[in-house]
């Protein structure tokens, strides 16, 4: 809901500038409209905006509609003064440029830029100053900003080369443990029967067919089951989860080291489906990062608000296109 | 070359029975013709017979031509008394049945059966009695037969769920080490520059694009480079190779345990591109299995000869279709 109800004053005062922030992900898309004081004026929620690598501009239709909805609700005329769209998969070239061009052509804003959804979330957690954001959902990535303003990414290599500690990787590790247990190369595990049952498969051979056509999210969807089996004391499942925590801690530890010196204990924000409130991995992660030592930033993050901050920053730049986060690698 | 030159006697004596054995793999296809005494009469070599999962019978044309060539060279009339075709990817249903039916329709033999190429290699190494075969090429699998005749498979789960210790997995582990090193999450490694150079890539981001379209064999083709980097003392590359050896030893150790009791020290045969004569992994593996303790079977294996033994065995069975090796799982 709006933090500030729209008023006719906004609509009637041509001296107020508006900014749009977009957080587009695999689950849903959120658009927020703020005024030049950063006050939220309106919000629109919509379906996922998954980037189709074959046609990256295709997703822009949904985003443009949501932007028009938010502007209309908030009483802002288009084009607004700035738009920043964080979209899953738009952190790498040439996708970023294609999306940016399509957004510009939609006439939503005088100044328009696009980037990864992770960037938008980072700017909500840390609008300025040092900090580290760890995201673990279907994939995994960590971003950090040092005291001198330098920005670094670790992880984010995608499902083939990385995503350690992510839902995808936890699912794959569990399936590897399944295969080892079945052969007798590893400990036998309750994961076997549980996985076959939840996937509706008759036997291990069917798992090979299943995995051949499974998507990253299908594999990540096994995570709640794996936690359940681990909580019942299954050794293989527990090992899978412990390894995921170690991997995620490794992401944070690396950023802490590479961004030294820190003026105070580094602050770490957690985001992504695996690290949300009430998710079992969150408690483990908070405990693990606090012994690094780091401080945990407890507030709930909102990528669309971070995107608004970035949109407001666009107006301060002469070329209208700030450099994207350095070293973004994977479009996944 | 033929171990026994063909003679007109074979052709003129209707009382001689002939058998055909096929070893079809991703590199080449070999067909051998033997007489009822098991003596090799002729041989034909041809292109790879990779199973196309969408059309498993498509590969049968090449196999049938090679069978006709071997029969003609050896002076045997078709149909011969038995044909056994071991083909990579034909160890799982329904592929096995489709290939078998197509081979029968080709009229090559009165009794025809098909299975995995690994089965054929096993029967060459161990025509009878206990033994263990470890195959590590692009993928990995181990087969064993106990003193009581019971047969077991471990590994062979394919690239998504298994293939530990294989060329594919060594390549993937090296790429994971590359990503960790690049981030600073792992030790920095010479693998980075070497991999980029051999693949002709400008930077790490290009590796993500490369892997997205790489085949299993493309990844396995990095193995010689990884050994080279390891031999130059690179810690990450050395770790990748040590882990592969551990995985392969684990396959053998599991079969040794599961097939107990053994009447004498178990004999282990090695096959596949990674374990061929003069390959660096072979020496490490021989050393590792001898401390299990196992005995290494040193002779060079010939899957087509193993397939001939299986073809001769078909005539002893009333239904003409012996049970395939139990628990074959992956078509990879």
Q: Which chains make the largest contact?
A: A-B, 31 and 31 residues
Kindly report the spatial arrangement of strands forming the biggest sheet of chain A. 3-2-1-4-5
Helix content of chain A: 40-55%
Tell me the fraction of residues in β-strands of chain A, as a range. Answer: 15-25%
Kindly report the name of the CATH homologous superfamily of the largest domain in chain A.
Answer: ATPase, nucleotide binding domain
Q: Element order, helices and strands of chain A? A: HEEEHEHEHEEEHHHHHHHEHEH
Helix-strand blueprint:
The structure is a homodimer of 332-residue chains.
Chain A: H1 8-12, E1 18-24, E2 29-35, E3 40-46, H2 60-74, E4 82-87, H3 95-105, E5 112-115, H4 117-125, E6 131-136, E7 140-145, E8 151-155, H5 158-161, H6 167-183, H7 191-199, H8 204-213, H9 216-220, H10 223-231, H11 235-258, E9 267-271, H12 280-290, E10 295-297, H13 303-314
Parallel strand pairs in A: 1-4, 4-5, 6-9, 9-10
Antiparallel strand pairs in A: 1-2, 2-3, 6-7, 7-8
Helix pairs in contact in A: 4-13, 6-11, 10-11, 11-12
3D architecture notes:
- Two copies of one chain form a homodimer.
- With 332 residues, chain A is α/β, with parallel strands linked by helices.
- Helix content of chain A is 42%, strand content 17%.
- A five-stranded mixed sheet of chain A has the order 3-2-1-4-5, sandwiched between helices.
- In chain A, strand 4, helix 3 and strand 5 form a beta-alpha-beta unit.
- In chain A, helix 11 (235-258) packs across helix 12 (280-290).
- Chain A starts with 7 loop residues before the first helix and ends in an 18-residue tail after the last helix.
- The interface between A and B is medium-sized, with 31 and 31 residues.
